[in-house]
Amino acid sequence: MRISSSLLLGLLALSSTIADRPSYAADLNTPYQVRLGPPRGASVFSQNPSSTDSLVTTESQHSGGQDDPLEPINRFTFAVNLKADEWAIKPVAQAYKTVIPTLVRTGVQNVFGNVADIWTSANNLMQGKVREAGTDATRVVINSTIGVVGLVDFASDWGYQKHKEDFGQTLGVWGVPAGPYVVLPLLGPSTLRDSFAQIGVDVHASPFRYLADPGARNSITAVRLTDSRSRLLDREKALQGIALDQYLFVRDAYLQRRQAQVLDCLLYTSPSPRDGLLS
Q: Which residues in 195-233 are b (16+ Cβ under 10 Å) and which e?
């Protein structure tokens, strides 16, 4: 689960649509290339193009901010989330970023990212993307051993691309409609489908949840959430001077990003310096 300002989550969603490398350990300032292409998962459903078209239509019906019957309630929750972030969450994240050295924070992000790769591999497999599932599983093996329980992300350096898949995306690939847009308390933007997947399934996939010691379990959760929020701090400047309805901005950015993730229409790569592509 994620905890943050709903507005910042919207900014993250919007920027990720253009330059998404959804990694807990990723440097958020790394430039990326983006190219559009046909859905890679079309063969999961049928070789008949009409099956893929049907999926696109189903998913698109709940994208672009058109399905929001709960808007009054969502707006209220959105405002509460902003205040919670301003008064409590953001100050803790700022202190964390100031006190904890960058090297340590990177190690923390890598460990959580390594654990997340396990669930990502499972979801890729459930979506029929066997190659990606194998890549994610290989990442876990490399980083858990040579990378010392995930502290160092050797797998990325060796060309094993990191993915991020969750059960909401898997349900979308299976054809489950997104349903109405909802804003969850503290958790931010979601849909009916993604809310069920996140709270009912994804949260139970983390091995940390099954630690016997409640204190250790809660401490790990707090560190993970604080670290996630701290990595959004540098993006706040981009929000200054935005002359629009912030609620609509977040809603549409989130829905568009989720649509792209479910349909696998964005193929992204992370160029390395030796490719001569950094600019």
A: bbbbeebbeebbeeeeeeeeeeeeebbeebbbbbbbbbe
Are 202 and 184 in contact, with CB atoms under 8 Å apart? no
Q: d(Cα 136, Cα 133) in Å, to the nearest integer?
A: 5
Q: How many helices (H) and strands (E) does the chain have?
A: 12, 4
pLDDT beneath 70: ranges in the chain: 1-66, 237-243, 265-279
For residue range 46-66, list pLDDT tens digits in order.
334 444 454 454 555 545 445
- Nearest-10 Cα torsion for 84, 214, 102, 117: -100
Cβ-in-10-Å burial (0-12, 13-18, 19+) of 108 comes to: buried
Query: Which DSSP symbol is given to 188?
Result: E
Q: Contact, 247 vs 70, CB < 8 A?
A: no
Q: What is the pLDDT of residues 230-258, one digit of tens each?
A: 998 887 766 656 657 889 989 999 999 99
What backbone phi and psi angles, to 5 degrees, belong to 21?
Answer: -130, 85
pLDDT at position 207 is 93
Predicted model pTM: 0.74
**Residue recorded with tokens 């401490």:** 219
